[in-house]
């Protein structure tokens, strides 16, 4: 049943303390309210879908300039929402970070924090029509020019997706088409993004990519169906498809989740080796801090749809600042350390449909102060590469300066 928190005011008109409403005050959505929400959502969705599906759009509408030409991607106040019958779910709500050229940026956080939605926004693969990019920009460096992907129509995005930006999905068995052979799916990517390429040239390129990812018998695998391969082999095929057009950016969305430990190590070694060969960047999405420590040059920590801390891998692991980042590190098991019970962060993530005005982590934080009752904290630049959104590191005025 759909419901929302009931907001009340005191008798003198002052706003009450921002605490969770008791169950007795829960306000269930009536049929009329649900219809009003659906009607409002439909109006917004139609406008956004119409903008995405435009044709013959001038390139000047989505041309932009990079803030730093050494970056491949710059997320700037990205907002991606899902329009549901219960209200608007703010899955990504103001994400800002960059991916430098030739670097691996690890995006870490618990399930539902917005990691995958951020990457799908970059690929324009957010599930539509409910999921929509409603604000912000995603600047992508093409080399000689830059595009704002958030403003690009779908017809133009198809020319970039797969060729300039490739994605290794979380579960290869659901990403590979079970009714087509591996060779057909590899050839399709090459033929689609290589003008004038013949079928023979596409097959040669496909076999070359299968060899690159360490498959011993590429000719045999080329003729196989996905179900005839093991999980590790399927993941290697997914990597081969992603690399077949020499992309500038590879998005790896938890590429080792469904694999056993030995295969995980092989896939990570493969990604590390390939990054040097293609001279590209990797956006690595995972909840495994061990993978982040081993693979990433920079780390972005997300919570409830926002970036709460970012910095180099050494800064995040040796000097974590945000209480949530500290809690994540305390919750991981450590070899040769015996504990009765692993640490867990108390409480729950706030409802994405009714997010509070204050820091989203306040109700779960053991170090919150009176200033945490104020507006959501701005970023505080601790070092040239390290920043955190927390009042614990703000000045006397309680502000952390402008967003970095």
Explain briefly what this protein structure is.
With 404 residues, the protein is α/β, with parallel strands linked by helices. 31% of the residues lie in helices and 22% in strands.
Descriptive notes:
This protein is an alpha/beta fold and 404 residues long. Among the domains are: 50 residues, no CATH class; 85 residues, no CATH class. The chain starts with a strand and ends in a 16-residue tail after the last strand. 35% of the residues are buried. The N terminus and C terminus are likely disordered.
Molecular shape:
globular
Question: What is the rounded Rg?
Answer: 23 Å
Straight-line N-to-C gap: 41 Å
pLDDT < 50 runs, ≥5 residues: 1-25, 400-404
* Total of DSSP H or I helical runs spanning 4+ residues: 12
Biggest β-sheet strands, sense, barrel: 8 strands, mixed
Order of secondary-structure elements: EEHEEEEHEEHEHHHHHEHEHEEHHEE
Query: Total number of β-strand segments?
Result: 15
**How big a fraction of the residues is strand?**
15-25%
- Alpha-beta classification: alpha/beta
Widest sheet: strand ordering:
9-10-11-6-12-13-15-14
Helix content: 25-40%
Q: Mean pLDDT, nearest integer? A: 87
């Amino acid at each position: 049943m759909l419901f929302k928190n009931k907001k009340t005011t005191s008798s003198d008109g002052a706003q009450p303390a921002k605490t969770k409403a008791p169950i007795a005050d829960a306000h269930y959505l009536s049929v009329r309210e649900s219809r009003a929400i659906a009607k409002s959502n439909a109006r917004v969705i139609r406008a956004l879908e119409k903008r995405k599906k435009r044709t013959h759009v001038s390139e000047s509408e989505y041309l932009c300039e990079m803030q730093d030409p050494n970056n491949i991607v710059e997320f700037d106040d990205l907002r991606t929402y899902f329009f549901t019958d219960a209200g608007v779910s703010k899955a990504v709500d103001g994400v800002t970070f960059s991916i430098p050229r030739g670097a691996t940026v690890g995006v870490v956080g618990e399930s539902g924090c917005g990691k995958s939605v951020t990457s799908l926004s970059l690929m324009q693969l957010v599930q539509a029509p409910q999921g929509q990019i409603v604000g912000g920009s995603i600047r992508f460096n093409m080399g000689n020019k830059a595009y704002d992907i958030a403003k690009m129509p779908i017809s133009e995005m198809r020319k970039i997706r797969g060729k300039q930006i490739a994605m290794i999905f979380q579960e290869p068995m659901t990403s590979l088409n079970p009714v087509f052979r591996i060779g057909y799916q590899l050839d399709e990517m090459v033929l689609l993004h290589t003008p004038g390429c013949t079928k023979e040239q596409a097959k040669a390129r496909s076999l070359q990519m299968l060899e690159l990812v360490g498959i011993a018998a590429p000719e045999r695998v080329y003729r196989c169906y996905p179900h005839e391969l093991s999980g590790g082999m399927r993941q290697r095929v997914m990597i081969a498809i992603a690399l077949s057009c020499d992309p500038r950016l590879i998005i790896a969305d938890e590429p080792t989740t469904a694999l056993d430990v030995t295969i995980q190590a092989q896939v990570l070694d493969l990604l590390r080796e390939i990054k040097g060969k293609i001279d590209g960047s990797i956006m690595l999405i995972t909840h495994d801090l061990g993978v982040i420590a081993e693979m990433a040059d920079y780390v972005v920590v997300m919570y409830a749809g926002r970036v709460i801390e970012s910095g180099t891998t050494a800064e995040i692991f040796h000097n974590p600042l945000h209480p949530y980042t500290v809690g994540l590190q305390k919750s991981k098991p450590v070899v040769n350390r015996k504990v009765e019970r692993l640490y867990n962060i108390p409480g729950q993530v706030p409802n994405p449909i009714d997010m509070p005005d204050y820091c989203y982590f306040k109700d779960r934080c053991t170090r919150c102060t009176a200033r945490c009752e104020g507006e959501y904290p701005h970023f505080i630049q601790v070092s040239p590469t390290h920043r955190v959104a927390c009042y614990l590191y703000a000045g006397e005025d309680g502000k952390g300066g402008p967003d970095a």
